[in-house]
């Protein structure tokens, strides 16, 4: 019986330990925690946080793996385990980690550096930190005992991330830990760019330590922040964290001014006057207020009203944040001060400051990356080939030349592996470098025959295979291209190689074309001219039979039979347009919209190609997402995410049932969403993009009525050479078309602003762009102009709203729309100003709807400090 009890007890203990371990791992789902310098195949759980760390060895290049070192014992005593070691990189200029993640998921990325005199030199190094090809920050440790922490919130478009350390000649780069934490995609949203942490502060913290996992489910680090002018309040109750899931241990304490009539002042000094910031403030009421008590407050920035009034909800988080970046002054001060009717002083629980990072440098085309990485692996190339092959330009891989037009990812155009100790046959991975123009494999120990695939490289102009051990015959097509001057081919000093089309002739060692002492110069010049003309020809559009090459595999490519299955044989039609018919369908169980190109379409392959290329490049929450495409013979189709609420016009011009009428706040939010998508095309893309067909039918609505711009077939890349416009054929939709562009043919981003202004008038009025009555066509802008003379905005706004809106907000919206449709483009605002002014309209309406006490967790948008919120006189 005793033995049975022991076995039972052992089983229970094993179950309990296993359950706890599994539960801990579930809570850390998606976490990647690398202890840099930890021996390969090692792992542990850090006792203070229970975070599971693994070795970084599998994530760095096997050829240049760095050196694992241990910091001095005097620095270890109070540190967590991941700080005890470092991995230093004394060799090479750029050394990188490659970590596989889930593309499209937002991540908190944290790189930690603690010197700890690991090298015995007592000399703090300085080096740069890159995310892929983009500069992230400079690492400049101040003390050997202090950790330097760089934290970034970033949404990668690929399924991997590269973090690189760059030697700048001021000491050996090193790293202590590298961590990745998946976040909720709906939080920390920017118009474009990523967020680098400046400060994340816990006001009135009762602990001397910073909080992180598992207090914070996302493992954010919250630092203590107090002031002698503040007093603390707290509650033992749980405080709900809201969408940002701010930890209870952070939110259940708050600061309030010692003098009840004073403000809470939060000064901050940016490093320069160009750095842009995003701010997140978190508030919660921690006291059960009596009936005669009331707490409300406003936020000022540098003495000017910024946002409010705010009534923090009981024991629940209320978050105020900037929806677009702030450009601060030299010295800045947030002041939180109570309203006139408030009986209690203001409070603050937590605040986050982030700087905006523009990671606009495109990564090398992924097909080229895969090919060159396989070439490196096949031959064991002994070069410091680390990070992105082509970017940034100053760190391009040795032996490579790359091309980039600023619109598409860089491509590898030249590969020189001469004298690189290559052994074996010529690898077929080279055939995947489609844009390759020059290939030099000379002076190696390559064996086997010259493969046929080299003659299939469409852009190859120079091929040097001299001084190897190749055998067999040169492919006939290479010989013919060489004789015609389209290829400079060198195959000399390969003893067993026949350079003739027919190898029945005597084998000879030649250089093709032969360059004689007298005639060589003339032939060389002819070859140069041929190369130049070939390059010009290479820039022409491909023929239709090569259409499939244009898209490669950035998004999933569907077959026609798959399209039939997705659409259930084209059963349900969603709509029709100039491109063709749009069908409803299911791809992998997810609803999609399938746009089929009609053979009689006035658009065609050019617009199809434009839209696919653009949607592969742009990523923004207010632009429709491309799921995939189909191009099979004459069948072409685009597969998009399905927008369950259709297009905006159907809601504006639908039936008169009040149940289906968009509220004023909802209209402003839709206008805001669409403006942010357009602002991203103009300012967030490099080079900028002009949509050219903004209209209410091209604004689609998701299930939660989030708006997204659609239909990019007419979009054009705008030049960045300093010009203010470009001349192009006039396209667009009547009624929305910029009259200046229509008359002059000169296109610029203000043409989109005009079209957006017309759409905004429709959002305000719910009128068609052109009304046809009494044998007269009336544009919506003319009708609004006539009504402005009355001076009553209620006669302009959709009457179905029955006046349920703030008059000041409506006036501002109408004024903005009329400014957008100014006759000359110079008088129109840019899209950044449009976004800011729409925020002003939205904030005024939100303030109206929240004059009563707020309850429950809530989030609100703060506005850009460059635009005042004070209502103009009416």
Beta-strand percent range: 25-35%
| Portion in helices | 10-25%
Number of domains: 5
Any idea what the shape is? Answer: flat
* CATH class label of the largest domain: Mainly Alpha
Describe the main β-sheet briefly. 12 strands, mixed
What structural class do you assign from the helix and strand content?
alpha+beta
If you compute it from the alpha carbons, what radius of gyration comes out, rounded to the nearest whole angstrom?
A: 32 Å
CATH topology of the largest domain: Transferase(Phosphotransferase), domain 1
Kindly state the number of beta strands.
49
Count the helices. How many? 14
Oligomer classification: single chain
Question: How would you summarize what this structure contains?
Answer:
21% of the residues lie in helices and 27% in strands. With 874 residues, it is an alpha+beta fold.
Structural account:
This protein is of the alpha+beta class and 874 residues long. It has five domains: 25-183, Jelly Rolls (Sandwich), CATH 2.60.120; 197-357, Jelly Rolls; 366-538, Leucine-rich repeat, LRR (right-handed beta-alpha superhelix) (Alpha-Beta Horseshoe), CATH 3.80.10.10; 552-642, Phosphorylase Kinase, domain 1; 646-719 and 727-865, Transferase(Phosphotransferase), domain 1, CATH 1.10.510. The protein is built from 14 helices and 49 strands. Strands 1, 2, 3, 7, 10, 13, 14, 15, 19, 22, 24 and 49 form a twelve-stranded mixed beta sheet that branches. The protein has a six-stranded mixed beta sheet with strand order 25-26-28-30-32-34, covered by helices on one side. A six-stranded mixed beta sheet has the order 35-39-40-38-37-36, sandwiched between helices. Strand 47 (770-773) and strand 48 form a beta hairpin. Helix 9 runs antiparallel to helix 11 (749-765) and helix 13 packs antiparallel against helix 14 (831-849). The longest helix has 26 residues, at 2-27. The chain is flat, with a radius of gyration of 32 Å. The model is unreliable at 1-25, 504-554, 721-727 and 852-874 (pLDDT under 50).
